[in-house]
Amino acid sequence: MKKFFTVVLGSFVGAWLAMMVSSVLSIILSFAMMGMMSNMSGGKASISDNSILVVDLSEVITDRGISNDDMMSLVMGDVTNSISLKDAVAAIKAAKTDKNIEGMYIACNGSANGVTTLYELRKAIVDFKESDKFVYAYGYEGIAQSDYFVASAADSIFVNPEASVDIHGLASQNLFFKNLLDKLGIEMQVLRVGTFKSAVEPFMLTEISEANRMQQQHYLGSIWQSMLDLMSESRHMKAAEMNALADSMLVAKDVTYLLNHKIVDGVCYMPEMEKKLKALTCGEDGDLNLVSLADMPVKDKLKGDKEIAIVYAEGEIDGSKDEGIISEELVETIMDLADEDDVAAMVLRVNSPGGSAFGSEQIWKAVEEFKASGKKVVVSMGDYAASGGYYISCGADCIFAQPTTLTGSIGIFGMIPCFENLATDKLGITQNVVATNANGGFGSALSRMTDQQRDAMQAMVNRGYELFTKRCADGRGVSQDSIKAIAEGRVWDGASALKLGLVDKIGGLNDAIATAAEMAKCTGKYKIAEYPENKTRWERMLEKYAMARYEANMRSEFGELYDYQKAAKQILSRDHVLCLMEPFVIK
Question: What does pTM read for this prediction?
């Protein structure tokens, strides 16, 4: 099938080569500009007296902080960055003991970060409050639910008189494409193991299955309860009382209602909010000294002869050659660390919905080889570590997750697209296949699988499931049958996963690092290093620039057909067999 697609893409090669010539010339001319601008990024800002740490909830927080700039944004001074969760937590911890930091201001400007990321950020804020420094939160245009989850940890919450607060509970949005595919004449030939393995449902059903509805209701309910418990405790009300407010269309209520029901503590315009902050720090006539998370000086990292290696596994496994987890590269990183004498242990930070079953197996094997070198492995799960994300985690000596983490989804599926109806019925293309053997034409995207081929592929998927559950059973030290009883592709929240034995402890990345150091017997005498190494700003900019030029040339040459080519390429380039959690949006 991939060979067929390579032939189809042959017509694009000429345009690509032409694009490369012009791109190289443009990139060479860009280096002069880069040299002039290389000094634009500075170091940490100095902290003056009476400063306030600002936690802007609109800031993107990822496992690894990166710069999302491109050439034009750099020229215009419009550079956007994300901070790593580890650095954000470290900044809050440093501010707790910094005598120049008087308090914290939480700017509720709309967060797009995952629930577990916000959970860890909120936990750091609660710890900050132990210093007896003030924590104020303010919503200028209103406070969305994700923001309120964090802001509820503040001493006082203020909102603009014309703004609103939205607390409504959790819901998943599931999209189904079968009707669309039928109209296009595209058939997704599905093979799967696991009643709850619902990643294929959008392509084979027109509505959610009862099994999938049940599992989503369970983990959404558990995550929401964790959020409710924390918010209601901070706001000094019962969880049931806050849940009732969530059912009351709170977003439509006026500020008087919000005040009366203890959702907020005060109402003020922005200038009045600034006066409140000045009264707590510099006085009415002073200037506010605001310090961002990125600018907060953090104490030097721990030092020692031994190293705790943090290895990040973020994104889909082998879903793309350009982003996510590339199994071959991650395996190489882990194997290199296994050979390093100064590396005492590894913390594998997993934030992945899974992906290629083959790639997951290769990473699992690398983790086993690392352990065979006599070193310990601790997994820290982020927003999700499901399906292949759990596959690569299950062999660890200890697994940490947060109550809001999505994990499990121990199941496997195959999905092979067939464009036969599209070609024949929609485009009027007919074909004949001449082959030496019965299955000589297998793999063509223009031919539907025969019963024999489908049975063979289903057997292959079944073997993958047996291997997956065996890896989990061996890693967790339990029987394969006990794993199968909680597998079937079912997604679990972190709190449920702890009860089921899929994870060992509730905690974040710092807890995992401390445990890894303890297991390696180097507590207090170790350094931390992060892998794989991040690309430099210029490397990322050049890659984005080259890709933008490529896209522009391809669109100029092929117009709207390029979008269809991209979509088809993504489908056809994936492995036949996947360990992948279903895509949906939690709102």
Answer: 0.84
